[in-house]
Structures are given as structure tokens and as C-alpha cells.
Amino acid sequence: MRYLAAFLFAMFFAGAALAGQCPSLVSQIDQQLQTAQLDSETEASVKALRDQGESLHKQGKHAESVKVLREAMRKLNSMS
Questions:
Q1: pTM for the full predicted model
Q2: Are 70 and 25 in contact (CB under 8 A)?
Q3: Which of 1, 50, 54, 68 is most solvent-facing, going by the fewest CB within 10 Å?
Q4: Contact residues for 72 (Cβ-Cβ < 8 A; gap 6+)
Q5: How distant is the alpha carbon of residue 5 from its chain centre?
């Protein structure tokens, strides 16, 4: 029973930690988009991933949101 309680406690805080990362990642992407020199195709792809990540965050799917937003960051960083 203790292990179950500890597991549930850890999962609750892991979800809260992921929820806090989403807005931060969106903000970082927005800042980098302002100064990045990207071709139109890459810029559209990054913006689409950013919007998808924000939408997933609003739906409460934080782990998926972080994954998508990190992909957008990878694209931005590889082109900068």
C-alpha cells in the first residue's frame, strides 16, 4: 500500500512539473522565432508544432505537449 501511495504521489507531481514546462517552452519558441533566420517551410513547420503543443497543453496532455514543443525547439536550434 505504501508503494502505491508513493507511486501516485510521484505521478501527481510529475504531471504538475510537465504542465509547468509547456508555457515556458512556448515562450522560448516564440522568442527564438523573432530572431531566427529560417526558410518559410521550416518556419511554418516550427509554428505548426508550437501551436500543436500549446493545444495539447490546453487539453491537459502535458507529456505529449512537451514532446511536440521539444521537437519544435530541435528544429529551431538545428536551423539557427
A1: 0.75
A2: yes
A3: 1
A4: 25, 29, 46, 49, 50, 53
A5: 28
**If you ran DSSP here, which 8-state letter would residue 61 be given?**
-
Position 21 scores a pLDDT of: 84
Cell of 73: 525547439
CA distance 20 to 12: 13
The single-letter DSSP state of residue 60 is T
Which residues, other chains included, contact 32 with Cβ-Cβ below 8 Å and sequence gap of 6+? 73, 76, 80
pLDDT tens profile 29-76: 999 999 989 899 999 999 999 999 999 999 989 889 999 999 999 999
**Model pLDDT, residue 66:** 92
